[in-house]
Amino acid sequence: MRKPLAITCAIVVSFGLGVLVAGSSGALGSEGGDWELDVPAAAAKLWFPPADQFDNEGDPLSDESFEELMAALEVAMTAEETLADFEREADLHLWNFMRRLSVPEIGDEQKERIHAYLDALAEEHPDSEVIGRRKVLVDSYASHMPSMPGFAGFVTLFEAAEGSYPEEGEPFEDWQVDRMLAELEVTANLPESTGDFETELRIPLWQMGNRLQRSVLSDDQTDRVVAFLDELEEKYPEGAEAIEQQRFVIENLMPGKVAPNIVGKDTEGVEFTLEDYRGNIVALIFSGQWCGPCRGEYPYQRGMLEAFKDRDVVLLGVNSDAVLDTIVQAKERERLDYRTWWDGHSQPDADLVAAEGPIAKQWNVVGWPTIYVIDEDGVIRHADKRGGALVAAVDKLLVDKTMRDFEAQREAAEAKAEEPGEAEAEVSSEKEGEDAGAKSKVTGKGNDGNQSG
Q1: Residue 207 banded pLDDT, cuts 50, 70, 90
Q2: CA distance from start to end of the chain
Q3: CATH for 263-394, among 3.90.180.10, 3.90.230.10, 3.10.560.10, 3.40.30.10?
Q4: Which residues, 6+ apart, have CB-to-CB distance to 379 below 8 Å?
Q5: Global confidence as pTM
């Protein structure tokens, strides 16, 4: 197992017990104390024969290796730790089992044995859903795949247990940041991890960044996360690109940060920028007609266009369809009359999806749709709002902006009322003239300062 990264809190790991406890400068809840990471028992130790034993470049799986694998599965599925939380633990055990089927060629008799075992297991656990989900994958995983899927990305530690994270949009506490770094540290060092950054850590790294974007980091917390990523890059230089992308997110795409400017051409070939729309609340929508969930957002977007018509609200799109005409026709058909950058121009060989466009890469978009809400000063206020939550977030920002504008106008009117009016200025000018005339009679001098006759 790799040497753990140095992070801001001390970590004691007992993989045998499946528990990680980390001392922190803060604590779960407001009373103080320690916080605890709950590592699934199925991930905390090696339950199956080493994965590289099954990486045989697609040769048939030997009977000896198959029997060893099936025996390990039986031990894992009947273990006390598994039975204590069957759905969670069984899901990970079955995934680890399936991974080992992916590279070698699995014979028909071996597949029948696996199906029979899972059918019997389902009878023992009639309320389980994970057994059926894994069973339907047996045949596809029994055929040769070029490489074995990873494990660390399948272990989701970034779960929103009560009190683990701040409310959306609220500031992080230091202990919560420590906990997230500890979670990524543990994920990187799971016994089943292959040490391949692309296979194991890209997804957990994205998960951490996505969770951080839901709330607000202080400058000091940002520095700590960046320092952690710097150290991670030293340890996994092959993951430098992915780590750099996540570092950009932490430094530039968090709530409270000024959004990086976007420069590109719209669907008519006209160049425009994100900064052109300062003074407006902007919903920045990374989307594509190829993407089902993206199309599911269209009704909300039509509603926003109507509800916020003639208000200081703008929808801007970044489109990832490979063919320009696809989005042009879709926007006309769906009545989505908002300006859109076409991000697929840089990928002439793409057939349907052009997800590697320069704007999407700059903003580290790896899932569609991704939607940012940006205020009138160009500051990111929300990341990945969708549906009704997006409408509500924009509406609240608009109300806040309207109230600020109203207050500014009221203060300006009051300030103007306190200044001398035109009538007062004329009276003052006339009085000054009278005073000057009286003075000239007394001194015997005219307005030109010369002695009068």
Answers
A1: confident
A2: 111
A3: 3.40.30.10
A4: 256, 257, 258, 259
A5: 0.76
